[in-house]
Amino acid sequence: MNTDKNVGRPLSRLEGREKVTGSARYAAEHPLEGVLHGYVVSSPITKGKIVEIDTLEAMAIPGVVDILSHLNRPKLAWFDLQYTDMDAPPGTVFKPLYDENILYNGQPIALVVARDFETARYASTRIVFRYHQEPHQTCLEKHLDKARAPKKGLATALKPPPPPPTGDFENAFENAAVKVSSEYRHGTEHHNPIELFATTTLFQGDGKLTIYDKTQGTINNQLFIANVFGLHYKDVRVLAPFVGGAFGSGLRPQYQLFLCVMAALHLKSNVRVVLDRKQMFSFSHRPPAVQQMRFATDINGRLIALGHSTFAETSNFEDYTEPTSNWSHKLYPAPNTLFEQKVVPLDVYTPMDMRAPGGSTALHAIECTMDELAYKLNIDPLELRLLNYSDVDPSAGKPYTSKALRECYLKAAAKFGWDKRSAEPRSMQRGNKLVGYGMATGIWDAFQFPSRVQIMINSEGKMIVDNATTDIGTGTLTVMTQIAADELGLEMADVEFRYGDSKKPFSMFQGGSAITSSTGVAIVIAARSMRKKLLKKAAEMDGSPFRKAKEEEVVFSSGHIHLKNDPTINISLKDIVAFNKGAAIRTTKMGRPHMLKLRKYSLATHSASFVEVEVDRDLGTITLTRAVTAVAAGKIINPKTAKSQILGSMVWGISKALHEESIMDPHLGKYINANLGEYHIPVHADIGELDVIFADEKDNLINELGTKGVGEIGLVGMPAAISNAIYHATGKRIYRLPVHFDELI
Amino acid sequence: METDPQNLQPQPVETHLITLKINGQNHSISIRPWVSLLDCLRDHLNLTGTKKGCDHGQCGACTVICGGKRILSCLSLAVMKDGAEITTVEGIATESSLHPLQQAFIDHDAFQCGYCTPGQLCSALGLLSEGRASSREEVKELMSGNLCRCGANVGIIDAIMQVKDGGSYE
């Protein structure tokens, strides 16, 4: 880094003005002349075949342009491989409108295209479908006997299976002095960003498509569309300048994109397809899971056995896994371990990564089990964690590139006032409310993906930085601008970061809390090359004082190159470009993780959450009154947007612990609360006082920036901390999420 | 009565001429009665600042101010509002400056993805002019019809409290 003028400052979001004035345009909002509206028809049955579709009445409605189904759809790619995407789990990808088979409830079975939205929606109700229904299986708990190891595939690289057993787990657990054996159940959750999934396709007529899509990966979706519809990838441009939340649901191309493009190509028109809220429950979710925990310690509280088995739902066509059983041994050392991770294929759509996939489910079970052990041992729960603290990753036998978890524990405990806790359950109260304090640990991956960045210095001496990543609300635009400005010693206003466009240089999808480390590092690498180019160009100028200057002898600041030992000798970037005959100076470079160096280390972010709940003594109603989360995630580029990421994920933790769940009716095979009135997410009144602390974690190993990502870690520890606080308040240990008041009466 | 679909002769739905005064500007629109005020704003008037999150009155993203009161534009048909005076998020700022509440939202980082933001802003302006909420707890309760999935709740309430206590929302 050249200066640190902007990095580390709590700057407000650069796109704030667009977002508060309503001028930010999301996927469904790009005005197009004569755009046709598509409305998706969803299968009301769960499994079987479509035997007849009668569209006669619907087609006769004035304004209806076409109705596409498997019977009349245009020719599609033949091979499953052509439908795959960067985030596809092993298996056979679902292909919308491919044939008569119904694989899950809510599956898209037709697209009505009309001149206006209301006509399309109305016409969708006038199509007559006849089905041949077959028996279905959608209940995880009823079909645990179907559990098997997941298939392996490309996705396994980011989601490794649990490590092999160590020691003699069964024997050690059997004979342990103190042990806990319990089973945790988690319901299905749906991402439910407030923006509905939508695609607007501009049919340009020259074989080219411009697509505004709700996605976390512009290039992922560009390649998907090119492959499926046999187009050259250069003829497909996917734009996502604003994304109204996604939380993982935009990691794969969703069916509205496919259907919208299909209709646009078929009708040679501009088409828009927007899903409705019910349909937002039809394409991805966090899978329900059963976790069996067996942890044991010696008499002093040292862990001697860790056993964690997970049985999680997947679809009958793809093997999705969110790794859960891997995590306990990354935190705690134990000589005897046994981990397994199995999937149970059912007649549902394939689950998908949802904010902190695996981690948030796993750490609930792990950290509640630790709490239970602490009570059995009569040790303070925080003390038990510190007693079993490890600076290395015991599961891999490698040191962490950095791990400031101890600082997280101590700082958060102090801020929270953990020392005021009396250990006994039901021992603290406030009026008619039982008060509970609970704590838990969080751990999450610190990923970095390859990313490519172009930097350009234009004739005004301004810096333009291009990358295909999205900004799904994480603050990416602001953070990248901060990094870029400091790399060339420019003001924020002199840097433009252009993103959300598949035409820009390569970025993976925006997931896994990885974009700051991926695109951010690519900016650092590209800026390094740009500084060289600029200095070289400056040295070529007539009478240049930089003729013999080496890189380490100059500094870039205030839009100039200065000699370090005589800052009065300088030249502006603008003059350098002018010398280049006014032609912008460009460089494109790739940033990638240092695989060889990092092979010797484990990489993770950590957190500690402390929460207080109040439980009504008579009614059992639970109120989260306050929470403190301390996070160790390396360097924080922007403390303001990073804090918002942690606050937001703490709210997700509250939601997972106390509110959200999609209820599957196993007889109908469908979610019966597929709307925001009955799928509860926290409202303002549900949120108590929330505090965020960032540990001072310097990491010189992980990447050029020292960053680890903050998008998910704030969620991981919260559900267990809340559950543990509920136990402390009430003396009742609830082994399922979300916890509801009726279980506490 | 049974109808033979073969003989159905669907008729085009009639349009109605209505006038809406939106953000101080009069709009005359010929519109079908089945169009919600929300879709009227977004699809017919290109005022896409007002957001559709559920179309069922459950999320609050479509909140606008109609006749001085905050309403859910997805639960109103446009024809029901003939002659009404409506303020959307596009009409909150003046030409030269943001409304203090908009600035407070930016300062408190009261949004992430920004999609619920227009509804939060209109709802908060409605709340402030109602004069019902005096405490932070009351503001939280009376803003609870507006969901935020990014979890920007703390920033949203902080921003509203700052403007409410500063009294600069008139």
From TrEMBL, chain A:
It comes from the Bacteria. SMART domains: Ald_Xan_dh_C. Transmembrane segments: none annotated. InterPro entries: Ald_Oxase/Xan_DH_a/b, Ald_Oxase/Xan_DH_a/b_sf, Ald_Oxase/xanthine_DH-like, AldOxase/xan_DH_MoCoBD1, AldOxase/xan_DH_MoCoBD2, AldOxase/xan_DH_Mopterin-bd_sf. Residues 21-135 form the Aldehyde oxidase/xanthine dehydrogenase a/b hammerhead domain. GO terms for molecular function: iron ion binding; oxidoreductase activity. Pfam families: Ald_Xan_dh_C (PF01315), MoCoBD_1 (PF02738), MoCoBD_2 (PF20256). This is Xanthine dehydrogenase YagR molybdenum-binding subunit.
TrEMBL record, chain B:
The keyword Metal-binding applies. GO terms for molecular function: 2 iron, 2 sulfur cluster binding; metal ion binding; oxidoreductase activity, acting on the aldehyde or oxo group of donors. Signal peptide: none annotated. Coiled coil: none annotated. Keywords: 2Fe-2S, Iron, Iron-sulfur, Metal-binding, Oxidoreductase. SUPFAM superfamilies: 2Fe-2S ferredoxin-like, CO dehydrogenase ISP C-domain like. Residues 16-92 form the 2Fe-2S ferredoxin-type domain. Pfam families: Fer2, Fer2_2. It comes from the Bacteria. The keyword Oxidoreductase applies. InterPro entries: 2Fe-2S-bd, 2Fe-2S-bd_dom_sf, 2Fe-2S_ferredoxin-like_sf, 2Fe-2S_ferredoxin-type, 2Fe2S_fd_BS, Aldehyde_Oxdr_Iron-Sulfur, Beta-grasp_dom_sf. PANTHER family: OXIDOREDUCTASE WITH IRON-SULFUR SUBUNIT, OXIDOREDUCTASE, IRON-SULPHUR BINDING SUBUNIT-RELATED-RELATED. This is Xanthine dehydrogenase YagT iron-sulfur-binding subunit. It comes from Pedobacter terrae.
